[in-house]
TrEMBL record:
One of its GO terms (cellular component) is cytoplasm. Residues 176-291 form the Ketopantoate reductase C-terminal domain. Catalyzes the NADPH-dependent reduction of ketopantoate into pantoic acid. This is 2-dehydropantoate 2-reductase. GO terms for biological process: pantothenate biosynthetic process. InterPro entries: 6-PGluconate_DH-like_C_sf, 6PGD_dom2, ApbA, Ketopantoate_reductase, KPA_reductase, KPR_N, NAD(P)-bd_dom_sf. Belongs to the ketopantoate reductase family. Its EC number is 1.1.1.169. GO terms for molecular function: 2-dehydropantoate 2-reductase activity; NADP binding.
């Protein structure tokens, strides 16, 4: 049976997923914050996806969390700091066999969201795809990538995975999703905060090799401490490779700060430091970096959580 994909968050990734699911003929419902957003969406006539400079409009049905229809499959595509509240607003609509896909970057928000729904299967995702909004309900597909999906509690792939095959969304089911999430968190911790503090593109970090290497060494310690030694393997080499491959890009955190938007600091560097602290393990350079980043955000009036 074809399930309806409920997608919460008509932002960059949510819109990118919703448009491709709808294009493949799958039933999709967008969940928008409130009636005002719903009215604006309806006036726009749907979601616009811009790919290779071509715009296509997808008139996907939308509703608010206050709607009463049951939800069997939910893709949560909000920022990490909104995830817990978002699932709480929908908990009453989830069926007994509901499944939730968590697209948030970093770590910590997935556990918080899952704790709200002890009976719901929560599938974690780690994505290297890139998208940004260039207008209300308009998303530009900016970077091809891959999405890994997995469930740390159950290696059995979900039945809807087959449907994804028809959408052209590059994805793979993995039993090692936690290793992927930790590895991405380590990459983000080694690169993103420094690009904010030095106000540079990723390639600008090639001028700070010693600082990057010290952070990678501490991140490696953290990953081993967390039972993720595979995520620590050749971390510094991969960080260097990513810095070179994305040298011309601004990191996602740099873009957030430059545009005066809240960052996901608590779920990236903040999470890394909090976990080390919980294990009573000293990571002086990561802690100092976190302190510098917090001061930087404070000075710009941006949240530090
Ligand atoms: P975004 O800010 O563009 O979109 C999030 C959307 O969720 C917003 O439209 C917001 O209004 C909506 N939202 C939040 N709470 C809601 C609620 N309760 N009800 C309805 N809507 C709600 O964010 P994004 O860039 O799509 O990122 C989503 C997640 O994916 C983040 O964790 C991000 O780090 C990760 N990610 C993004 C990209 C990318 O290229 N954009 C790539 C990889 C990972
Ligand atoms: O994922 C990234 C981001 O900007 O968030 C990269 C490119 C890996 C830099 O950390």
């Amino acid at each position: 049976m074809t399930m309806t994909w409920h997608v919460l968050g008509a932002g960059s990734l949510g819109s990118l997923w919703a448009a491709r699911l709808a294009r493949a003929g799958l039933p999709v419902r967008l969940l928008l914050r409130d009636r005002a957003r719903l009215a604006t969406y309806r006036a726009a006539g749907g979601l616009t996806l811009v790919e290779h400079g071509q715009s296509s409009l997808y008139p996907i049905a939308a509703q608010t969390p206050a709607d009463s229809t049951p939800i069997r499959l939910l893709l949560l595509a909000c920022k990490a700091y909104d995830a817990e509240a978002a699932v709480a607003s929908l908990a009453h609509r989830l069926t007994a066999d509901a499944e939730l896909i968590l697209l948030q970057n970093g770590m910590g928000s997935q556990d918080a969201a899952a704790a709200r729904l002890p009976r719901t299967r929560c599938i974690l995702a780690s994505s290297t795809e890139g998208a940004f909004r260039d207008g209300d309900f308009r998303v530009v597909f900016a970077g091809h990538g891959y999405t890994w999906l997995g469930d740390p509690l159950d290696p059995t792939p979900p039945t809807w995975l087959e449907q994804l095959g028809s959408t052209g969304i590059p994805h793979q089911w993995t039993p090692d999703i936690l290793t992927r999430l930790w590895r991405k968190l380590a990459l983000n911790c080694a690169i993103n905060p420094l690009t904010v503090l030095y106000d540079c593109r990723n390639g600008g970090l090639l001028e700070h090799p010693a600082e990057v290497a010290t952070l990678c060494a501490e991140l490696g310690e953290l990953l081993s401490l967390c039972g993720q030694p595979a995520a620590a393997e050749q971390l510094e080499e991969e960080v260097e490779r990513v810095i070179k491959a994305t040298a011309a890009n601004y990191s996602s955190m740099h873009q957030d700060v430059a545009q005066g938007r809240r960052t996901e600091i608590s779920f990236l560097l903040g999470h890394a430091c909090a976990v080390a602290h919980r294990h009573q393990h000293e990571l002086p350079h990561l802690n100092a970096l976190h302190g510098r980043l917090v001061s930087h955000l404070n000075a710009r009036g941006l949240p530090t959580q």
